[in-house]
Inverse folding.
């Protein structure tokens, strides 16, 4: 690239090539002139000839150079005009490209803005949905935590109740009161209030937990609550071997002691029934006794002491209730017969009064028939009056009408 003034020329430009060719020719002429001057010493005539020829050649070169300069000027002017047109076209094209690029950039910016808006809306919707789901989950979690807290409070309360129950059952007196309260609740639900007595004192001075007033036979029967908890816990906590045998012996002896005490205290000939009931307030103790200590149960049968649990006690009391109901019905049989006699007399009186009422109804029916006949005749006479029929009635009809009215009276 060659810079001349404000114009720039490339090496492959025709003008530049022509100028270079002219410069090369000028240098060649100068070289020939130098060579000719050196050879002039050898021959003068040929030198003059050559100088003349060289002069003409130089003149031709000058003319060619002038023509070349004119061509270069024309080419330069044409190139300047072409460059101006090219620049104008390029500027127009660049402006169009810039406008198209601006339009595309604006369109892309709008698309990007819409995409960002849609994406923002989606993100907002997802965030709202996630927020609602999170709020719902937190609400459910809070509700479950409240349920867990309530259950924890119930467990804590139940633990306290269990500890209180353990404190109650660890003391013999409170354990006995626990059995009596449970027995009182069962008896109160199964029997009428006037069919039993709590803490009843017998003729021997012993006080029974409950005395059921059954009719003879069998007579009043005593229910006493016993709870051999210590012996049962020792049996449950014992290992196999001698310790288990000792615990079993202790449990057997404890229950037999209670059976013997009930038999001696609460079975009184002529006052109570020939048997008594021992109430065990624990189903587990009752099941253990009947599962593994059948000899103790048979010993109770021999002593006429029947062992019951809360479940079997309720069944036994329902049987006693049926016995009491049957006995009371037998006691009221005489009163029932007298009531039936009075009821039969009342039925006879009702039958007599119904017969009299039927007689009165027959008389009233006859009177109503007579009234109907008289009304019919009166209607006929009224019809005659409406027709201005003033014909006198026959004497027989007048007499009959008067007799009919008299009968109606």
């Amino acid at each position: 690239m060659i810079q001349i003034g404000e114009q720039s020329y490339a090496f492959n430009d025709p003008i530049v090539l022509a100028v270079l060719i002219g410069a090369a020719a000028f240098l060649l002429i100068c070289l020939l002139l130098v060579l000719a001057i050196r050879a002039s010493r050898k021959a003068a005539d040929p030198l003059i000839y050559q100088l003349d020829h060289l002069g003409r050649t130089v003149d031709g070169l000058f003319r060619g150079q002038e023509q070349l300069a004119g061509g270069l000027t024309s080419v330069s002017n044409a190139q300047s005009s072409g460059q101006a047109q090219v620049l104008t076209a390029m500027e127009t094209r660049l402006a169009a490209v810039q406008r198209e690029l601006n339009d595309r950039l604006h369109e892309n910016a709008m698309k990007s803005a819409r995409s960002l808006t849609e994406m923002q809306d989606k993100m907002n919707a997802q965030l709202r949905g996630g927020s609602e789901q999170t709020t719902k989950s937190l609400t459910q979690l809070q509700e479950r935590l409240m349920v867990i807290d309530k259950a924890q409070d119930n467990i804590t309360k139940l633990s306290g109740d269990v500890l209180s129950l353990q404190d109650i059952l660890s003391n013999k007196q409170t354990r006995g009161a626990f059995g009596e309260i449970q027995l009182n609740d069962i008896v109160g639900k199964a029997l009428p209030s006037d069919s039993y007595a709590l803490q009843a004192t017998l003729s021997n001075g012993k006080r029974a937990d409950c005395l059921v007033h059954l009719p003879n036979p069998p007579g009043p029967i005593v229910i006493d609550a016993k709870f051999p908890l210590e012996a049962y816990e020792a049996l449950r906590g014992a290992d196999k071997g001698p310790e288990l045998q000792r615990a079993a012996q202790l449990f057997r002896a404890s229950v037999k002691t209670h059976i013997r005490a009930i038999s001696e205290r609460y079975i009184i000939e002529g006052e109570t029934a020939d048997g008594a009931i021992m109430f065990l307030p624990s189903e587990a103790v009752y099941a253990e006794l009947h599962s593994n200590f059948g000899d103790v149960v048979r010993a109770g049968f021999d002593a006429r002491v029947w062992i019951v649990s809360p479940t079997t006690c309720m069944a036994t009391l329902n049987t006693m209730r049926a016995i009491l109901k049957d006995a009371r019905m037998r006691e009221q049989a005489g009163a029932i017969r007298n009531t039936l006699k009075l009821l039969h007399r009342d039925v006879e009186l009702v039958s007599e009064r119904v017969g009299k009422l039927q007689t009165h109804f027959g008389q009233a029916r006859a009177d109503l028939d007579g009234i109907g006949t008289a009304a019919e005749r009166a209607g006929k006479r009224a019809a005659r009056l409406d027709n201005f029929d003033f014909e006198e009635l026959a004497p027989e009809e007048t007499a009959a009408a008067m007799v009919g009215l008299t009968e109606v009276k």
Remarks:
- The radius of gyration is 72 Å.
